[in-house]
Amino acid sequence: MDARYIKNLPAISAAEQEQLKMKKILIAGCGGLGGYLFEYALRLGVGSIRIMDGDCFKDSNLNRQFLADGSSTGTFKVLAAADRAKRVNPLVNVEVFTSYIDRSNAFHSVFDCDAVLDALDNVKSRRLLLKACQKANVPYIYGSVSGWTAQAALIMPEERGLGKLLNGSFADMGILPFTPALCAAMESALCLRLLCGRQVESGKLYCMDLLNMDFENPLIK
After folding, report:
1. Whole-angstrom Cα distance, residue 60 to residue 32?
2. Which long-range contacts (CB under 8 A, 24 or more apart) does 118-123 make?
3. For 39-51, how does the pLDDT look when each residue is reduced to its tens digit (9 = 90+)?
């Protein structure tokens, strides 16, 4: 085993670590949430990571987006991610697409993946992504942030009627630097358990309010 993965053990087993090398995920969105998801997947050793985002960095991203720095303004976010991968874990195969999720590419983007992680910022794109996952029989991992609050959930493709989760109920409260990191940790933990074949409950919404330090996990079925 490559030494870079030693400290992942024994939280996951050596067999599970080897299993991760055979997995492919899509991270849809590469901003505040997606940057952390990408970093965690690199360090876990997921074998193939597909990233999609048509956006470029702006100065307003600097407060929270892991991949943003003073020299990245105007750079495609996914290209910055690919460059990061070369430095952090060149063993991972990274596929880069400088495009947004839309009707023309959603199904093709997800069909050969073992899991899809949502790092999007709008309801329309989320619904397209969820529908594509259901059609392609791929698990969808939802994540959303606002202000002090983060949400995450796993939706298996056979579970219909959970689109209500994507209603965009969050008010625009800005995004603090640490909230995307928390949300990405929640999504990544769900994804890791799924990819390793561990038991993980779907149809449950995990909500964390960092202002009041409240944690809830209601069923959304």
Report:
1. 11
2. 118/28, 118/29, 118/142, 118/143, 118/144, 118/187, 119/27, 119/28, 119/29, 119/30, 119/31, 119/33, 119/34, 119/37, 119/143, 119/184, 120/28, 120/29, 121/29, 121/31, 122/168, 123/166, 123/167, 123/168
3. 999 999 999 999 9
Phi-psi region of 203 (alpha: psi -120 to 50; beta: other; left: phi over 0): left
Residue type, 91: L
> Is there a contact between 68 and 60 (Cβ–Cβ < 8 Å)?
no
1-32, pLDDT tens digit by residue?
899 999 999 999 999 999 999 999 999 999 99
Distance of CA 142 to the CA centre of its chain: 8
pLDDT given for residue 218 in this prediction:
76
Which residue bears the tokens 């943003």? 68
Q: What is the pLDDT of residue 141?
A: 97
DSSP 113-172: -SEEEE--S-HHHHHHHHHHHHHHT--EEEEEEEBTEEEEEEE-TT--SGGGGGS-----
pTM for this prediction: 0.95
Structure tokens at 215: 């944690």
The candidate with the shortest Cα–Cα distance to 28, out of 92, 124, 93, 164, is 124
* Burial of residue 218 (number of CB atoms within 10 Å: 0-12, 13-18, 19+): exposed
Nearest-angstrom CA–CA distance, 174 and 193:
30
Amino acid at 26: L
Only one residue has tokens 């990571």, namely 49
Residue type, 188: S
